[in-house]
Amino acid sequence: MKITPLKDKILIVDMEFGMEKTKSGIILQSDDGKTTGIHPRWGRVFAVGPEQKDIAVNQWICMEHGRWTRSWKLKQEDGTELEIRGVDNKAIMLVSDEKPEDVMRAE
Predict the structure, then answer these.
(1) How many CB atoms lie within 10 A of CB 87?
(2) Cα(34)–Cα(57) distance, integer angstroms
(3) C-alpha 85: how far from its chain's center?
(4) Global pTM value
(5) Could you state, in order of their start, the residue ranges of all structural domains in the chain?
């Protein structure tokens, strides 16, 4: 199944909301739903609209807190599910071709 956003819209996947750990080993507790949880977040670009000229699929974008839609799940042909969100294009602060290594999921 192929999803194409309208105009210059962007859809993302792989956002992290749980406990995280910086590359240097500092643990950041899960703060979703708390005042301390108000901070920018990274997501991987899943799809872009035909008029989007600045952002490409599989790039990583960092956006202002809360400037994404609620998620919905898409079941892929292989049976896995993706949690997809829309993005407010005006809230994008950074773009990276690779997954940022400064913050990763804590195990």
Answers:
(1) 21
(2) 31
(3) 8
(4) 0.79
(5) 10-16+39-101
Give me the tens of pLDDT residue by residue for the chain, a chain 107 residues long: 689 999 999 999 998 766 666 677 766 665 556 665 677 889 999 999 999 999 999 999 999 988 999 999 999 889 999 999 999 999 999 999 998 876 554 44
Residue 62 tokens, joined? 């960092």
Can you tell me the distance from the alpha carbon of 63 to that of 39, in angstroms, rounded to the nearest whole number?
9
Read off the amino acid at residue 67.
R
φ, ψ of residue 44 in degrees (nearest 5): -90, 135
Structure tokens at 29: 């507790």
Total residues found in the chain within this entry: 107
List, as one string, the DSSP characters of 47-67.
Answer: EE-TT--S--TT-EEEE-TT-
